[in-house]
Amino acid sequence: MEILLQNFDLLIFLILIVLGYSAGTWAEKRHYRSINKREKELIKLAVVTAEGNFPPGRVADSTLVSGSVVVSIDYFKRLLAILRNIFGGRVKSYESLVDRARREAILRMKESAKKQGASMIINMRLETATIGRSANKKKSVGSVEAIAYGTAIVMNK
Amino acid sequence: MIMTNVNTVPGKKIVEHFGIVQGSTVRAKHFGRDFMAGLKNLVGGELKGYTELLQDSRQEAMKRMEEQARQMGANAVVNIRFATSSVAQGAAELFAYGTAVRVE
């Protein structure tokens, strides 16, 4: 007991790691499940990065749609990434973070396009930015923002 | 006002170009949200406060751009692009730019 009290800092550190690992993994799994489910639902809505050419009279309406999300990484994975920085190589924990953010952003864009009755989205662009407290400390990317935007096309029936 | 991020307004013809229009805003979030985001940083996941903040500010930037285009006498903005940059601790700049045009 006394050792524990003496190493109070270490104890907090360990608790944070365990909390980060368990809560982070759980949240990530849940997020991936929801992403997969919604991607299946919205698969009918085509998204292309090309600019389409439409014959006159076919397009009823075109609007800009966008979706964005800010996702942050958990304490455990951040630690893993710092360790990874020593040896170099793939940083898997960050790969999944950015992947989740992009897919979620695209999904939100699609959802808002669907609400407007659009049948396709053309010229989609993706952008990523780091924001928040860690944004100016170049070394630690804590949270990442992904934004997807494109032009939703409503076709004439 | 028609907004698109393609070179033209699909299905319509551009009759006049007015040049570039832009809108930007710099936002910082209030202490409470920042604190919550700090806590959320431990467990990971979506930072809803930040997402909302950025969405609001992007809308604001778009509104300013639209206002500028309207003053020029345009009725559409094409080729819109977004950019984000962090100018200071905890503040983010959101920036939208495009070309103001008139379609028939």
From TrEMBL, chain A:
Please identify the protein, giving its name as recorded: Uncharacterized conserved protein YbjQ, UPF0145 family
The organism's taxonomic lineage, starting at the top = Bacteria, Pseudomonadati, Thermodesulfobacteriota, Desulfuromonadia, Desulfuromonadales
Identify its protein family.
Belongs to the UPF0145 family.
**InterPro entries the record matches:** UPF0145_dom_sf, UPF0145_YbjQ-like
A Pfam family that this protein carries is YbjQ_1
TrEMBL record, chain B:
Pfam families in the record, alphabetically? YbjQ_1 (PF01906)
Which superkingdom?
A: Bacteria
Instruction: Write down the InterPro entries for this protein, in alphabetical order.
Output: UPF0145_dom_sf, UPF0145_YbjQ-like
The record's family statement is:
Belongs to the UPF0145 family.
Quote the protein name from its UniProt record.
UPF0145 protein SAMN05660420_02512
Q: Which organism is it from?
A: Desulfuromusa kysingii
Identify the taxonomic lineage of the organism of origin: Bacteria, Pseudomonadati, Thermodesulfobacteriota, Desulfuromonadia, Desulfuromonadales
